[in-house]
From TrEMBL:
Organism: Crotalaria pallida
Gene3D superfamilies registered for this protein in UniProt: Winged helix-like DNA-binding domain superfamily/Winged helix DNA-binding domain
Subcellular compartments: Chromosome; Nucleus
InterPro entries to which the protein is assigned, alphabetical: AT_hook_DNA-bd_motif (IPR017956), Histone_H1/H5_H15 (IPR005818), HMGA (IPR000116), WH-like_DNA-bd_sf (IPR036388), WH_DNA-bd_sf (IPR036390)
Compositionally biased tracts (Low complexity): 98-109
Protein name, as recorded: H15 domain-containing protein
PROSITE patterns cross-referenced by the UniProt entry: H15
Chain positions covered by the region annotation Disordered: 75-180
Amino acid sequence: MAAGEVNKFPSIPSYPEMILNAIEALNEENGSNKSSISKYIESTWGGLPQGHKALLNVHLAKMRDSGELVFWKNNYSKRDPNAPPRRGRGRPPKAKDPLSPSTVSGPSRPRGRPPKDPNEPPRPHKVKTPGGSGRPRGRPRKIARPTGGFDGVPAVEAAGSGRPRGRPPKMKTPFTEISV
């Protein structure tokens, strides 16, 4: 604060103190959730600042990240000094091996492929030997089809293909009369 500035809320302790007092006073078995902490602070200390909920969220997050509070199943509780630390989600990181090449001090290899030695004699080229069925690799080339429609029906050619465009015409069967 500046020299001439006066504290707007002189009777209110800091948020971390209020949060710790609320958790101790509520004394719930699995810890206290955010709404019960907020209600306790509002009932105990009146005249809270305008953004009380936002300030409470910020301070709870800071205290959780610093390790003052433990957040478990949506409840906040004080950290027990004798309790082992809780494991987070996911797989734990691998332990560093002190004898691995990455941890031993020395010249480390650069990334990527090593450069070619300019003094090395050139290698002879590989000769391709015919093998297998004798056909070339890959998909066979398209063979040009004769132009014209199917069954002697003239058709409009599509650009470059031997098939007419669109759906083929429906073949109508001739009706035969049955004498009775």
